[in-house]
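Re: [help] complex structure
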Amino acid sequence: MASKEVIEPLLPTSSNTIGTRILDIPRSKGRLRRTKSAPHADSPHSETTGTGTGADTCPVPRSGFIFGNLGPSLRRVALVLILYMGIGTLCFYLVRYQIRGEKTNGIVDAIYFTIVTMTTVGYGDLVPNSPSTKLLACAFVFSGMALVGLILSSAADYLVEKQEILLFKTLNAHQNGHCDMTKEIDTDKARNKCIVVFLLLILFIISGTVFLVTIEKLGFIDAFYCVCSTITTLGYGDKSFSTKSGRIFAIFWILISTITLAQFFLYIAELNTERRQKSLVKWVLSKKVTNLDLEAADLDNDRVVGAAEFVIHKLKEMGKITEDDIAPVLKEFEKLDVDQSGTLSTSDLTLAQSS
Amino acid sequence: MASKEVIEPLLPTSSNTIGTRILDIPRSKGRLRRTKSAPHADSPHSETTGTGTGADTCPVPRSGFIFGNLGPSLRRVALVLILYMGIGTLCFYLVRYQIRGEKTNGIVDAIYFTIVTMTTVGYGDLVPNSPSTKLLACAFVFSGMALVGLILSSAADYLVEKQEILLFKTLNAHQNGHCDMTKEIDTDKARNKCIVVFLLLILFIISGTVFLVTIEKLGFIDAFYCVCSTITTLGYGDKSFSTKSGRIFAIFWILISTITLAQFFLYIAELNTERRQKSLVKWVLSKKVTNLDLEAADLDNDRVVGAAEFVIHKLKEMGKITEDDIAPVLKEFEKLDVDQSGTLSTSDLTLAQSS
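Output below.
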């Protein structure tokens, strides 16, 4: 469910920014040191795009691709959701006499049934009562699951990042300047996202419980039980939304709260991965470099290991890259290195691109 | 939910293997070319561990960490599952008179109710009928969701890989040798896993439908509808397992089939990510290298770009690594480069480790 979107135009921009940055630095032997000491200032995104601030720090590489197409991705998800809801409502409204159970308003029930099916809550307070309606429900639950996956993989993450920035901006309001806030977010991205989603979840649990107590006239325990049963998509169905206003509330509340809980579990998993990755990085960096390591790292076989070779070796040890990531790039390098000097220069490029 | 496990001892082994391999290659200017032309033979895992065969090829870096601790992870998941089921069964057996609905055998119903709750199917054929039982069910559904996430993140992936190897071994039985099979699996890991899980899913749908028709005496459409309603965890509850033998079957079938469907959606997402990553890699490699790229890639500022520098630059463009991955390694490099020559040699190591 954690498939992240990639948009290509981002990358040339990113590399150009880095290129410009490096050109600004005076050319001396000490440049390597500069690049090292200022990793945060280096990030081309931290100042320009608010939502992409932490993506560079995130040790889970898949997340690194999020910030590119949040706009279009969100629009696409919203469009698919509207389309799904529209078709669902129309279908279940047309077959409303083949659905049995507690009825309120025709349209409201159709939307409510679509949401309850899509999120796999499946209370059973409304159930299909004819073979064709049953098959229709089957089709909608499968596509609903896929749609929830789509929402989780792009839209939810985007919205949480937005809220995260808002929250930490408020919390850091006493500090002056945007930069501090950005750094704060950078330091522990996954943890902050967990906190934000957890707070949202508490909010939805409270609002759902209060609503069920006041509007649906349930007891407190029953209301809380119905809320838990709903957000986990358990949906035993002994307690559900049975009034018209209850179902109108449920349409929005069920969609948002079930997705928030799923997102919460995803972030917990991401947090675990991040922690594990961080400790792995620490371990790889602290372990003793042996002569065997030097030999392994010596890519161009000049008997010494340059900074770049060392970086590749260590990133391989960290599992961030593999032989198979490197091989095609080396092939490309060989193609460009026309004079076979083992290095690329401007003349190589001119030769390679003219031939 | 896609949090993958990392075990540390794997990595030194991996790097040592690479070290040994490079030592075997005659030291000449042409060595770079050799490394490039044989990426598959390079993989230290492809011959030794059956389950890890494709992990090096997988463009989704998170999956690269799976193969390390499948054994312990699987055992841990099995242990947690048994513990959860044991406590669940005991609790719901003790409060069996506070659960209303269609009853069969006390123990069977307790296990069945635990499974129906844990997987969030929640038919509602058995529902808690007292405040304490309702709160108990709430506790079990939350922990059940976490447990399903745990199963999805480790055990299910492991079992699918096992089955994948079995399947493709059978399909490739006419080809001689283990190596061909390994290569076949390597070429399109995510697609193969999708196929395997899809076939399993079909198997579970058919077996569930047949069982419901023969044992629970449902009509074909109703049986299929109940199967769909169950594996998606929708569980309207108008059709469910109501006999003792039906529930014994359901205990195993619900757990396996719901996890298989969730895993199927996860693999579809992984497949999409993989395809997108592949096209991004292709695009980054095919795009024209400019002088600006050369300047950006020139990490050690010697006015030429070595193979390793080129690799880092391109991997950064692909989004596989970021500045923040590189910065701490460069810091470590600087610490080791005692004579500040810009390269690491045996003498650097001796100096750095004696001080």
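Chain A touches chain B through 139 residues (CB under 8 Å).
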